[in-house]
Amino acid sequence: MPLTYLFKKTAEKLPDKTAIEFEGKTITFRELDLAANRVANAFNELGIKKGDRVAQFMPNCIELVYSIVGNFRNGSVIVPMNVSFREQEILHILGDSGANTVITDKERLPIVNNIKHKLKDLKYIILIGGNGKEALDFNELISKSSDKSPATVLNDDDHSIIFYTSGTTGKPKGATLTQKNMESGVKALVQSWRMSKDDIFVLALPLYHIHGIGVALLTSLYTGNFTVLKRKFDAGDVLETIQKRKATLFMGVPTMYFKILEADAEKYDLSSMRLFVSGSAPLSKELFSQLKKALKHEVLERAGMSESMMNFSNPYEGERVPGSVGFCLPGVKIRVTDKNYNDVPVNTEGDILIKGPNVFHGYWNKEKYNEEVFKDGWFVTGDVGKVDEKGYVYILGRSKDVLISGGINIYPREIEEVIESMPQVRECAVVGIPDKEFGESVKAYVVLHEGKKLSGNEIISYCRERLASFKKPKYVEFIEALPKNTMGKILKEELRKMHSEK
Q1: Predicted TM-score of the model (pTM)
Q2: By the 8 A CB rule, do 129 and 151 touch?
Q3: CATH top class, domain 402-500
Q4: DSSP three-state, residue 391
Q5: Boundaries of every domain in the chain
Q6: Residue 368 to residues 7, 371, 374: CA-CA distances in angstroms?
Q7: Terminus of the chain with fewer CB atoms < 10 Å: N or C?
């Protein structure tokens, strides 16, 4: 069932319940429903129709929520854009998607204006908080529009959203998800995490990422819980909000959880919480342990991707295994194969392939490439991992990040976990660097906790005692911070570039 119909049902069941609070302003589910109708009808009046791409380039705000739900209701395809992107990145996404509309704020309007002459498909620039002179005014558009349900008919196979991948190898590609892909993912998460209308959710994730939109916002609108939306993440503010609102649910990335520890989480009353979720980047065993002590909770780690929303999750009830992303979510199937796509035995590393109603059908305008990433109906994720005898899935890294040293595969995550178990180490990243004799050698980039000291030789010796000799780092470099994207994913290509430039 298309997402907009699910949200409509929530508004019918809980019309007067507060859906979202943002910076002191609250809206009920009925108000959100009517605002979404006005957005959809305003789009229709402009000529933005079903299937047209509408880019969203703004930080978290109420208008962005209206736009997201209104887009779904109008049948236009959402193209979320990272608010940190600059002209070249925006030009690629708008040009590749063929978006005819971009919704933005005053801070980012100059970026759009500087490149609009290069975009033949771009017709409308809609501005949040504008005065109607610089661009079409969002609030003026929807204030004049009807709040009646639009006549657009939506189907399960209609495109709903295009998430552009982080593009660590070449330019970002648009992962195009259908209404069915998104709906199945939302329902699987609600079922697996026992989400309900009684939850009080603190949402500080950005609403331009699959984690913020799909995993967080859309599940909330489906279940009918009360969401406190934050413009951006601030650890102290999040902890204070949990304490004040007696929140039950929080979703974050490892970088956020580091900040929560630094904010002295133990001094806050978090007894109302029932679930902390982590994703978008690996949660180290050491951080899992530290959080368990500070939060009095075992953080639930899960894994997904732009191409499929969520695929795996540790159980809500049952053992949450540090270092594992848990079991397949309802409807998702997994295969672990060798390079010839032959299934490998339990506990054997290989390439991860998935299939399910959540999995997209391909990248936008990449027909030839799409033939390469599907094998007999299975999506080749690019992840390397294994499944143990209990069914827990372990992701060891991206296949492009696997080192081959002396003809032997080395998985960076295994080495990273060993180094991160050292009490002086905050986090690390392992990459392969060119080696004349072995092809590649192991190099570890290490970030220490403030005030701590450690030598490269100490790290190498520590690894030698715990890993096969060929896996230990040959080189160790200490840096102040690892390069990451806005969702906390380590940019290993940047580390390789740093080494090559020396």
Answers
A1: 0.87
A2: no
A3: alpha beta
A4: coil
A5: 3-178, 233-398, 402-500
A6: 36, 5, 11
A7: C
